[in-house]
Write a structure and sequence with these properties.
With 472 residues, the protein is an all-alpha fold. It contains 21 helices and no strands.
Length: 472
């Protein structure tokens, strides 16, 4: 069957499935209970056939998201057991992060032995992170004050799992100490990316200072390790559609499509604010930095879809690093900016925290002045830097902060009900923001290569040297 005919068939099947589902939901026509379900599965089967002919991993991930959501809706009990598939995928990906970040940073810093240039690049990256996250903060505040999603909530509607959230009190000293590793093996096992970054930077500086004969073997080892981990990533990513489908099945099976009205209003507010942030901040930044938007969007489609479905920035990190190299960003820039951004450039999380904090106050019926809102949100920005490895980190920090501002905690548990859906969007925006930050810093450094043609997948080992030749 020709692809054009297959696409037409898929669209027709989806229209029929949607029509039958709506008719059944409104008790119109007395349809057999199983008919809409059969129609939906036929449409998904046709979509899977189309995906098999396209042979695109990104498209397979999208198809698996639809199949997972449908499975979660039709078989919620069985779907909640599908979480093991996403957990397996996340575990495999997390084994990549530390060695990949370590190896690429060591090669990027010690391989050039220009420590002043690395310091300048770090300063530029931090300035960019601060400016963009501040924009995210203000857009979040504007959105929640416009929609007033938390106004009118009855405390009786609060449904949550208090035992799963424990307030974590952190002093300034704790936040600073959290940046520095005390045991690199412990940092790796706990997934503390920022601590691995700090260790790798100091290690690379030390390596750059030793004699050439001692530096060369370690550099060759780091280069080999980074190439092996990129190939490792390619193998693991074949499991991505299964992991993504399992994640969506579990989410839909557990909470369905009908969260609380006010919580759903908050969800729409978040998605609208994130869309505004993308259009009003990130797109203009990309245009100003002369980043080729079409190539950029094509490159990040896969890592962003992985981040959206798994709600894990870590799951998307290896693919995001490869994507940025594929459009002409040197590996040393990617290796430094992107892992650092995972702690300092969480655009989606910053915007979410500003929304959620004011939502709690609105739900409690407490009027906060703009000054009070800013103080609370800036506090959240600072404290969130130190808990990247804590499960439900954003909610944990939110709970601790609202308590310190004498706000009640029960609205946080309403947010908990839809946190999975909110986490998808904010994680995807975090990945988009970090990918763009990498490209912008490369342009700022004068090392972004326009019209760069990525090598075939088997020639990735030569990509960085090719970029360097183009850049100089």
């Amino acid at each position: 069957m020709k692809l054009s005919r297959l696409v037409s068939l898929i669209l027709l099947l989806f229209v029929i499935a949607l029509t039958l589902t709506v008719l059944q939901a409104n008790n119109i026509g007395g349809l057999p209970e199983a008919l809409p379900k059969i129609a939906r599965w036929l449409a998904l089967a046709a979509l899977a056939v189309y995906a098999a002919q396209r042979r695109s991993l990104t498209f397979w991930i999208v198809v698996s998201m639809f199949i997972g959501a449908e499975f979660g809706h039709d078989y919620p009990t069985a779907a909640q057991n599908m979480k093991v598939l996403s957990d397996v995928f996340l575990r495999l990906v997390k084994t990549i992060i530390a060695p990949l970040v370590f190896a690429t940073l060591v090669v990027g810093i010690a391989g050039h032995a220009d420590l002043k240039q690395v310091g300048k690049m770090g300063l530029k990256a931090l300035i960019y992170f601060e400016v963009v996250t501040t924009f995210a903060l203000f857009i979040g505040l504007a959105a929640i004050n416009l929609t007033k999603a938390g106004v009118g909530i009855s405390q009786a509607g609060a449904e949550g799992e208090p035992e799963k959230l424990q307030a974590v009190e952190q002093t300034t000293s704790d936040i600073i100490l959290h940046i520095f590793p005390e045991n690199i093996a412990k940092s790796v096992s706990e997934g503390q990316v920022l601590q691995v970054v700090v260790f790798a930077i100091i290690f690379a500086i030390g390596l750059a200072m030793v004699h050439g004969k001692h530096r060369r073997p370690m550099l060759e080892f780091a280069e080999s390790l980074s190439e092996v981990m990129f190939k490792f990533t390619n193998v693991v990513m074949f499991f991505a559609p299964i992991g993504v489908g399992g994640a969506l099945a579990y989410t839909v099976g557990k909470m369905g499509f009908s969260p609380l009205v006010n919580a759903f209003k908050l969800l729409l507010t978040l998605y609208g604010a994130l869309a505004a942030f993308l259009l009003l901040v990130l797109v203009p930044v990309a245009l100003i930095a002369r980043i080729p938007l079409k190539r950029f969007i094509q490159a990040i489609a896969e890592p962003v879809s992985i981040a959206f479905a798994t709600t894990s920035s870590e799951a998307a990190l290896p693919r995001a690093m490869e994507a940025m190299e594929s459009i002409g960003v040197p590996r040393r820039v990617v290796a430094f900016v992107m892992p650092t951004g995972y702690s300092f450039n969480l655009d989606g999380t910053t915007l979410y925290l500003s929304l959620a904090a004011v939502f709690v106050a609105q739900a409690a019926g407490i009027e906060l002045s703009l000054g009070q809102q800013l103080v609370m949100v800036f506090t959240l920005m600072l404290t969130s830097k130190g808990v990247a490895g804590v499960p439900r980190a954003s909610l944990v920090i939110l709970l601790a902060t609202v308590a310190s501002f004498n706000l009640p905690s029960w609205p946080v548990f309403i947010i908990l009900g839809i946190d999975a859906l909110m986490d998808m969007a904010r994680t995807a925006v975090n990945v988009i923001g970090n990918c763009l930050a990498t490209a912008v810093v490369a342009r700022w450094e004068g090392e972004f290569v326009d019209n760069y043609v990525a090598p075939p997948i088997d020639d990735l080992a030569e990509a960085d040297s090719s970029i360097a030749q183009h850049a100089h």
